[in-house]
Amino acid sequence: MKQLYLSNRFFLLFGTVSLLFAVSYVLPWLFWVAVAAAGLALGLAGVDAWRLYAHPKPILVNRRLPKVMTLGDENTVRITLKNTTGHRYEVELLDELPMQFQKRDFTIPFIILPKEKKTVTYPIRPVIRGAYEFGHVNLFISNPWRPASPFGYLQRRLQLEQPAEIAVYPSVVQMKKYELLALSRLSTQQGLRKIRRIGHSYEFEQIKEYVLGDDYRSVNWKATGRRHRLMVNQYEDERSQQIYSIIDKSRSMRMPFDNMSLLDHAINSTLALSNIALKKYDKAGMITFSDKIGTVLRADRKANQLGKIQEQLYKEKERPVEASFELLYHATRKLVNGRSLLLLYTNFESMYALDRALPMLRRMSKLHLLVVIFFVNTEVEKVAWQPAESLEQIYTQAIAQKFLMEKTAMVQKLQQHGIQTVLTRPEELSANTINKYLELKARGLI
Fold it and tell me: What is the pTM of this model?
């Protein structure tokens, strides 16, 4: 009986019968009509219950989850249902989603025909890393109501598929997407741009015909004399350079954007960039910090290095404290051997916050090639450029524009001290960071 539920049609039917009994107090001749109607209603409900409970397992269910889900991407859940009976059912599917989604009214209604095999899919987009636990798959089945078949007064609940746990990792989908763009000729059409080489290394690759923009110092005069056309030497990119992604885990990175924190955007970008760096034969590593040093993974280019980075990124959590850039400076001096490219993911919301960190950033930039990556506040940006219709909105707009100008001033201040910068919207973080890495590599600065 715990599986039995009453539908709205049941209450409508027996409400009508109750109304007939009530009216029969005024019109006694309606009493026997009400009795007949009550007997008919009980009979219909009994037949309806028999049709629902005639088979112990009228519908079989198989839920297929991805092996892992990726952060910030749409992941597809597939549920296959098979009707083992000769009856047609109305079905209301309720999958017990993990608590992280906070969805308590998730249902999918449909009709399944006799002996039919049906697949139901729905997308989910996790915005928090960690373990997600799916509960049971619940089916509320009822006999379809039609004029020729007046049923559907009762519902039977079937609880199928046992709970399952699945891990949400940093976005592998985004990583593969940017790998394809960075290594393909279509990258300029998709947000990644190719950077012409300004300097060059000493690793000779080939002799090619001169095109506008090539370094004139690379002209091969002997080959030019033989071919009667300008020919230049082409050199390979430097390999085995150390690339460190440094992630600030302090409270400045807890700010949400598109339901994901800035830390999670930085984590997705780190995975994508590390993959590109390894494909370019460089060494990828990572460091996380806040008021103390967190994960330290030394730069390497072994086959399992990307897997190690992914596992470490999966475990990272924000800390509600201020970041210690003094600690980061001493950690990089001790842990990072040799000149390396340091990509620092952090966020400065005021010039005061930058001024506090600047002395340590300048020291780091003397030892390594430092790129400071921080974020445009997109909510402030929306306020700054929306039409103002009142005096209060004009003041609010002016303050918002002041904040945006301060961000630009931060970029200029860092560049004055020889520190590379990337000021980006969160949704463009991976593309802009990879562009910066490819630019520095093409210019031979790494």
Answer: 0.77
- The per-residue pLDDT string of the chain (446 residues; one tens digit each, 9 = 90 and over) reads 677 878 778 888 888 889 989 988 888 888 888 899 899 888 888 888 888 888 888 999 999 999 889 998 899 999 999 999 888 888 999 999 999 888 888 899 999 999 999 999 999 999 988 899 999 999 998 887 665 456 777 888 888 878 899 999 998 888 888 887 776 644 444 455 555 444 455 555 678 888 876 777 788 888 888 888 888 887 655 567 899 999 999 999 998 888 899 999 999 999 999 999 999 889 999 999 999 999 999 999 998 999 999 999 998 999 999 999 999 999 999 999 888 999 999 999 899 999 999 999 999 999 999 999 999 988 888 888 888 888 888 888 899 889 999 999 999 999 999 999 999 999 999 999 999 998 888 887 77
Buried b (16+ CB within 10 A) or exposed e, 251-289: ebbebebeebbbbbbbbbbbbbbbbbbbebebbbbbbbb
Helices (H), 281-390: 305-315, 325-335, 351-367, 378-385
Q: How far apart are CA 126 and CA 163, in angstroms?
A: 18
Q: Where are the domains of the chain?
A: 4-53, 59-168, 172-193+238-442, 204-235
CATH 3.60.70.12 matches 172-193+238-442: no
Q: What is the topology classification, in CATH, of domain 59-168?
A: Immunoglobulin-like (2.60.40)
